[in-house]
């Protein structure tokens, strides 16, 4: 009986694998078409200065409403792209779309606003990233100083001697680099010392617990002072209530984003938000 149930479990496991592989293959075909036909979208989530309340930057987040597959979440899109050789095209599509959107906002007078773009780890491996970024900046007419690339602490990133060089090339173009989800990955103090980073993003799991768990709070404090001592600015992600926002501001955290401040939204909704915010500042200035 035991033997039978084990082989049954194995069969279930294997058929689960097949289904997953099949789904991924279908997704890959649909994704390639979506990139070509420009039917992916980006949503935008503001990143605020916690001291002034001004929007300093906007993070671009991938969204895909597929006709055949429904909502596909970004982490699955990225995984499919990585497994099926679409990572470069997807990456370039995201960069291009985000940079031209920001250029549009700059033309509307929302300067100096920046855009944060997430880059998947594998893109760092082939040394093409700096060329791609240079080309996209040229095509979209966006100034390099307005672009922030977010990278995660993936082991493959740190294993390559070339990653520091790639980051140096990117910095030489004048763009900024942020380390995303800090505290959950593999980075060590020597990485922080050797890599040319401008910003650390505190992972939302620490932010979620910091008001109720003194150990999470102490870690947040430590990350902030660590970043500042290395001349980096700190961004807290996943701020979901006023208590977290207040505490982070009090601890000297530079920037923050999260549902409490604003949810990711369409480009159109973001335009309206920027307009409304500009109007509020104008009326405050008039009243003074
Ligand atoms: P991330 O870069 O760490 O982005 C933050 C994620 O947290 C986003 O999830 C965002 O919608 C979500 N978030 C924002 N505020 C809150 C909050 O207050 N509470 C909670 N619980 N979540 C919040 P999303 O959009 O589902 O993206 C997930 C991940 O997928 C991103 O994590 C990033 O690693 C990846 N990703 C998204 N778009 C892209 C892209 O264009 N390229 C690449 N390579 N990766 C992307
Ligand atoms: Mg990010
Ligand atoms: Mg993050
Ligand atoms: Mg994340």
Q: How would you explain this protein's 3D organization?
A:
With 288 residues, the chain is α/β, with parallel strands linked by helices. It has helices at 2-37, 74-83, 87-107, 129-140, 155-159, 162-173, 189-194, 204-209, 214-229, 242-250, 267-287; strands at 41-49, 55-66, 70-72, 114-118, 147-152, 176-182, 199-202, 233-236, 255-256. It has an 8-stranded mixed β-barrel with strand order 1-2-4-5-6-7-8-9, surrounded by 4 helices. Strand 6 (176-182), helix 7 and strand 7 (199-202) form a beta-alpha-beta unit. The chain is globular, with a radius of gyration of 21 Å. Ligand C2E binds next to strand 2, helix 2 and strand 6.
Count every beta strand, where a strand is a DSSP E run of 2 or more residues. 9
Tell me, rounded to a whole number, the average pLDDT: 90
- Residues in helix, %: 40-55%
Low-confidence stretches: none
Q: H/E element string?
A: HEEEHHEHEHHEHEHHEHEH
- Round the Cα radius of gyration to an integer and report it: 21 Å
How many distinct helices? 11
Q: What is the 3D form?
A: globular
Largest sheet: 8 strands, mixed, barrel
List bound small molecules. ligand C2E, magnesium ion
Strand arrangement within the widest β-sheet reads: 1-2-4-5-6-7-8-9
Strand content: 15-25%
Q: In terms of structural class, how would the helical and strand content be classed?
A: alpha/beta
């Amino acid at each position: 009986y035991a033997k039978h149930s084990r082989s049954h479990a194995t069969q279930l496991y294997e058929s689960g694998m097949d289904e997953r592989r099949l789904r991924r293959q279908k997704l890959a075909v649909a994704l390639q078409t979506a990139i070509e036909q420009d039917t992916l979208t980006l949503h935008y989530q503001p990143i605020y200065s916690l001291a002034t309340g001004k929007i300093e930057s906007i993070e671009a987040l991938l969204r895909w409403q597929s006709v055949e597959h429904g909502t596909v979440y970004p982490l699955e899109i990225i995984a499919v792209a990585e497994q099926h050789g679409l990572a470069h095209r997807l990456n370039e599509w995201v960069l291009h779309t985000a940079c031209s959107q920001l250029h549009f906002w700059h033309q509307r007078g929302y300067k100096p606003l920046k855009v944060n773009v997430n880059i998947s780890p594998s893109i760092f491996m082939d040394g093409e990233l700096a060329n791609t970024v240079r080309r996209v900046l040229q095509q979209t007419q966006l100034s390099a100083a307005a672009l922030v690339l977010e990278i995660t602490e993936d082991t493959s990133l740190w294993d390559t001697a070339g990653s520091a060089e790639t980051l140096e090339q990117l910095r030489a173009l004048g763009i900024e680099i942020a380390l995303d989800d800090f505290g959950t990955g593999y980075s060590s103090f020597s990485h922080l010392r050797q890599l040319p980073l401008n910003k650390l993003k505190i992972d939302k799991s620490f932010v979620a617990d910091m008001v109720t768990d003194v150990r999470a709070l102490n870690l947040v404090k430590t990350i902030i002072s660590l970043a500042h001592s290395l001349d980096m600015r700190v961004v807290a992600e996943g701020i979901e209530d006023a208590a977290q926002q207040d505490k982070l501001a009090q601890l000297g955290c530079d920037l923050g984003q999260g549902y409490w401040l604003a949810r990711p939204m369409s480009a159109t909704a973001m335009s309206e938000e920027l307009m409304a915010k500009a109007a509020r500042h104008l009326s405050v200035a008039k009243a003074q």
